[in-house]
Amino acid sequence: MIDAVLSMSGLALVAGIGLGVAAKKFYVQSDPLADKVMAVLPASNCGNCGYPGCRAYAEAMATAAAEGGRPVAINRCLPGGAATIQAIADVLGVDPVAVADAIGPQMAVVAEIQCIGCTACIKKCPVDAIVGANKQAHTVIADWCTGCKACIVACPVDCIVMVPVPQTPYNWKWDKPAGPHDRFVS
Fold it and tell me: What is the number of domains present in the chain?
């Protein structure tokens, strides 16, 4: 028994050292600007921006900013909203723009009468906001839904619609009135 434990421990040690050496030898330096942009993105990887994930979107924005070429729109991150767009603009040093989909925050709602329980939407949801079992009606956890619309594309019976997020006392925001105090805020 001790021989088996020692041989497995030795094998694990050799494999660990081999992985450590390989990690150092094949390390690829990433773009620091892309890392900064990635840090402000919500990392939901919904693909709503037209890129396969948040990392690809961040790299495209950083490459365009570094090369001074054709700019990549910074307003395509719907789950992040206006706060994320402002943060991206600060990181890249550009002017912020309005959200591409200016109809406000939305969430998915499943018409449970039409749902066939195929679980296609569950597999596509990047934040696991859809719950349900196979061949049973599904539903969306409203607090978790980011409004990325990935489930709409996946649904074969079109039973998912986007609705505005209902305003409740828990998510209501007071709009600050414009006034003389605005000149002191930078």
Answer: 2
At residue 90, what are phi and psi to the nearest 5 degrees? -65, -40
CB 160 within 8 A of CB 111: yes
pLDDT in tens, 115-169: 999 999 999 888 889 998 898 989 999 888 888 888 888 899 999 998 887 777 7
Query: Residues near 166 by Cβ (< 8 Å), separated by ≥ 6?
Result: 142
Query: Is-above-0.70 flag for pTM?
Result: no
Kindly give the interhelix angle for 32-40 and 54-67, rounded to the nearest 10 degrees. 130
Domain with 153, as residue range(s), is 106-164
β-pairing, 139-140 vs 130-131, is: antiparallel
Residue 48 sits in a domain whose CATH number is: 1.10.15
**How far apart (Å, rounded) are the C-alpha atoms in residues 75 and 86?**
9
Q: In Å, how far from its chain's centre is CA 9?
A: 40
The two three-digit tokens of residue 9, written as one number? 């421990």
Q: What is the pLDDT of residues 48-68, one digit of tens each?
A: 777 888 898 888 888 887 777
Contact 57, 51 (CB under 8 A): yes
Distance of CA 8 to the CA centre of its chain: 40
Exposure class string for 159-174: b at 16+ Cβ within 10 A, else e: bbebeeeeeeeeeeee
The residue assigned the tokens 């990047």 is 126
